[in-house]
Design brief:
The chain is α/β, with parallel strands linked by helices. It binds 2'-deoxycytidine-5'-monophosphate (DC). 2'-deoxycytidine-5'-monophosphate (DC) binds next to helix 2, helix 4 and helix 8.
Length: about 220
């Protein structure tokens, strides 16, 4: 069974998705980490993020992996490198290219097939594009202020004020939801959960109820 969890940054997707996967004893895939690893490769090669053919050449030269240790680039663990300010600033531009997306979507489907089709998959377009036939689709939302406050606790955001983080989040939201290729939006058949006033456990419990109603 595939459970899709989509939503903008700072809604608690990763924490919730990881907890649901743990409880169900199935795998967890953070697709944002894949877009970030692709962006890290692009930055390391000094390629212009606006030229799709060059981005595809970079992807062809590198291997992105996702395992127990987290995200890897050519076998090197890069979980903390992909959270750098530089990657965060460029990842929306890289992930806006349709060609880049189709490569990564293919990679994500293959990864789930390798887990015998059982996984919690987190991202922006998982319920709409990557696994449109998934039976449990969740879309998490939260107010921009709550999301900025949550992000303020992340290493990625260290040294920034909540207002600065909120501005960065809304710039990224704008690019992610207005891009032509697979914009961020809830699938029509997704359950939308506003997490602004909920604890992690409450969100996880609500998702588990949808899962058990489906099996
Ligand atoms: O979830 P995150 O912040 O690590 O995601 C980083 C970026 O990757 C985000 O700005 C949008 C992009 N992304 C995407 O376009 N599609 C996905 N399925 C996951 C992430």
């Amino acid at each position: 069974m595939v459970i899709t969890i989509d939503g903008p940054s700072g809604v608690g997707k990763s924490t919730v998705a990881r907890a649901v996967a743990n409880i169900l004893s199935i795998s967890y895939l953070d697709t944002g980490a894949m877009y970030r690893a692709a962006t890290l490769a692009v930055i390391r090669e000094g390629v212009d993020v606006t030229i799709e053919t060059e981005l595809l050449d970079v992807l062809a030269r590198h291997t992105i992996g996702y395992a127990e240790i987290g995200i890897t680039l050519d076998g090197e663990p890069v979980a903390s490198d992909v959270r750098s300010e530089e990657v965060t600033d460029e990842v929306s531009a890289v992930s806006a290219h349709a060609g880049v997306r189709s490569q990564l979507v293919e990679m994500q489907r293959r990864w789930v097939a390798d887990q015998d089709g059982d996984a919690v998959v987190e991202g922006r377009d998982i319920g709409t594009v990557v696994f449109p036939d998934a039976r449990v689709k969740i879309y998490l939302s939260a107010t921009p202020l709550v999301r900025a406050q949550r992000r303020a606790g992340d290493a990625e955001a260290s040294g920034k004020t909540v207002a600065e983080i909120a501005a960065q989040i809304s710039a990224r939201d704008h690019t992610d939801s207005t891009r032509m290729a697979s914009p961020l939006r809830a699938a029509e058949d997704a359950v939308v959960i506003d997490t602004s006033e909920l604890s992690i456990d409450e969100v996880v419990d609500e998702i588990l109820q949808y899962v058990s109603a489906d099996v």
